[in-house]
């Protein structure tokens, strides 16, 4: 019996080792620097992956099967990287649900992925950052200050008198000494009229060649010293204008565009030219107190182009909402049972809502409300109603409205109408996913308006995909995409904003409410306020004015229209072409370098476009990838940063923020730029020093 024991034991052990597991055990899948990795676990039953439990940055395929668990795990690191770029490793979990016979269970697999590393340093050219930059600072000469002529101090009052062209007796200053001083001034060719007595034996001399003047004067024995008449400037910054209206703190878009600086500039009085912005939309509520005095009214160019067909006159029974046809009153009507808001009122408030105290329209209504971009500039909104009370607009009506807004005559139901205030800017916060052939009448109207000198600004669409929206995609229109806050210096494309080649510019339109973020920092009724666009609205249920947070390219377009109007009002530009060129040239480039389908030429920059004064002066860095993601690594006291990033091609801008919008190195600010591509083939990169220059 003892001789049989050994072989029997061995057979039992062999059988146990070859048995297929009847459960799925926990495990760790370490991607390291890889983008994807197969993971295999022997198993004899059926299994599935809970897709809903996957973190956003992980995808798994297949999601189920029978037998061995064979998964391919793929990391989209960009979806898991925080704006601060401060995680060296991403970690997430996969839940595997399994069943073997009567047994079942849930098992967690942990997935880890190393981030890629980008390092560098932002070096302030104006300041020594630390002991290790001493050599650089010492060997880089500071730029010479601007000088307007020279100041020379003479050793005696008599010599000063000679320099000023006065007669001096020889007994006070020898003839030879007088000749030396006169000769020096003669060689400098500084006429007597350009010599100014500064007192204390000093003279200011107007001369263009400062260096030559200093050499000549310092060689005169009668001169005590000669120095440049250097230009000194105020060292303090202008303070940004911060409106005090009740809800102004929720209007983060204006700060992002640098309006604190613009409004300070506006108080200098340079914005004097009247500008009309036509808002072709659902009409407007003239009885909203925050819009009083900001709109052209009935009988003053405002127009409703919508026709009216009473119920029973055709198969649609169409009623545009106000009970009549085209007329001079584009009020957004209060139809029975209406509960939605007034789209045109929301858009108009972004451009031109009043500042300061307003009429209180109801006991619970605000007495100051919101603010509009126009502030003190003479910019007025011309409402043109082309969207009915159901929120629909016909191509024919919009085409008529665009032509009318631009000052072209139109005929409505046999009656001719001509706009007495042709709009320099036409805002179209509307559009549709129609094909180019169907949209041709719209595009013809946009072309006519452009030839008439109007800049037509249109919402690029909220389709999130790549299909063009019209009329934004029409030649001659300015298609505006939407950006929102990211938690980093640079904003990002709003997820709903359509992406296609005709997108020309981007502007704040707010976050998709389904993915609400709260980077703006505002609070409303004690609760954090999401990054939406807050503006004037109408409560049709209560029939009273209100304010509402909305998001969309409809909210982005009027940001561009408002800035275009301010360029014209200040006289920075004078017409359609140079206004568009200025908007594009001063935009903050986002995403891939240059124009791209997400952002066009970039996010508009009001402070840069209008040449507004500096209201801040901070040093920082912004990191963006070609997909449009934004990251904000911290700088240490020496300006160094280490960013843990996903795979991709990155632009790194070190720069100063001078318009207090938190975005470093824009068109009007000192900047230095570097780039690097990271991924499995290059897991780290060092950019070295970035020294912002004007």
From TrEMBL:
GO terms for biological process: proteolysis. Belongs to the peptidase S8 family. SUPFAM superfamilies: Subtilisin-like (SSF52743). It comes from Deinococcus aetherius. This is Serine protease. Residues 316-344, 655-694 are annotated as: Disordered. Keywords: Hydrolase, Protease, Serine protease. It comes from the Bacteria. The active site is at 281 (charge relay system), 343 (charge relay system), 554 (charge relay system). One of its GO terms (molecular function) is peptidase activity. Residues 275-602 form the Peptidase S8/S53 domain. The keyword Protease applies. PROSITE patterns: PROKAR_LIPOPROTEIN (PS51257), SUBTILASE (PS51892), SUBTILASE_ASP (PS00136), SUBTILASE_HIS (PS00137), SUBTILASE_SER (PS00138). InterPro entries: Peptidase_S8/S53_dom, Peptidase_S8/S53_dom_sf, Peptidase_S8_Asp-AS, Peptidase_S8_His-AS, Peptidase_S8_Ser-AS, Peptidase_S8_subtilisin-like, Peptidase_S8_subtilisin-rel. Residues 321-332 have a biased composition (Acidic residues).
